[in-house]
Specification:
Blueprint lengths: L1 H21 L3 E5 L11 E2 H9 L4 E15 L4 E9 L12 E4 L12 E5 H7 L6 E6 L5 E11 L4 H4 L2 E5 H8 L5 E2 L1 E6 L5 H11 L4 E5 H4 L1 H39 L1 H9 L4 H37 L6 H4 L10 H23 L7 H6 L2
Parallel strand pairs: 4-9, 6-8
Antiparallel strand pairs: 1-11, 1-12, 2-10, 3-4, 3-7, 3-11, 5-8, 7-8
Helix pairs in contact: 1-8, 1-10, 8-12, 10-12
Length: 367
Amino acid sequence: MIVSFAILEGFRNEIQSKIFSFGSHLTVSKYDTNNSIEIEPIGGPGLIEELHRFPQVQSVQPFARKTAIIKTKDEVLGVVLKGISEEDSRSPMRQNLVAGQFLSFPDSAASNDILISRKVADKLRLKVGDKTLFYFIQNPPRVRPFRVSGIYQTGLDEFDDVYVIGDLRQIRELNAWPDSLVGGVEVVLKNFNRLDPVAENMYENLRYDLKLDKITDQYAQLFDWLQLLNRNVVIFLLLIIFVATFNMVATIFIMILERTNMIGILKAIGATDRQIRSMFFFRGISLTLRGMLFGNIVGLGFCALQYYTHLIPLDPENYYMDRVPVHWDLAIIVLLNVATFATSLLAVLIPTYLISRIKPVAAIKFD
């Protein structure tokens, strides 16, 4: 159970961390019936101040998106350039870097640095330090040279196949926007578990021309997959608890049958059923505590081995990561031990009531 929960939480945190590195808990943008990647601009500074007034908001960052075509000597590929601001330079995207460095943001002009995915780099045969041309289909068409500052890899096709990260000021210049306009703002909450009520409250207080998107709706297939993992682990844990309870009951029954003669003698010399039950009960507790001790050693030992050595690999194409992830949560470990101990107590207590049905004369003669 410890290993199951550690791996489940590891998967959940790893996937959510990768998703949040490209998006945030909530996205505020211009309300538009057009379902295009490129959205109408909104006023950034005023909206950011307005969103910061919500007590549940941790940070707010502007962004903008623009479609482009990357052309090299041999290949052509369509991508989405996502512009971020210098304030977002410490974003979780850094954890996805596999080569190179993060974007640099000079004070004098827009940065020509970009981050591309490992998939895009392989398709276009680009490496860190290479320069390439981006063609923007607009009126009039624009061409911009960019330098590959770093290469990232998330394992999520939704991002690796599409997104290139660049400077927000580049998109402002291409769209002839003033510094006060942005494509939208991304909102990170202090507690992701409060996403739905916070989103509802924020939506009611936003201007009528703005829309609010939850990340669970934007990437519904990924979060549905995480929910499916939850159900699988719950079923798995119920089966483990059932088997463990059955084993404990069977063990105590066998102990009682093996000591039927002893029970008869104890009753004959005046021992009460309660006293005899307590003997088997505390013996069962001793076995339970010993089993829990070894179970914790094995479970936590395996988790530590995987956490520090990455002993068990995974196929990133299927699991979105290259190793089995492990997440340490002391509260869950303590709760599992308490629940296991409580269940074992009940499992030990039930068969001891068989003792009251044993008659001293028949028990002494029992062979």
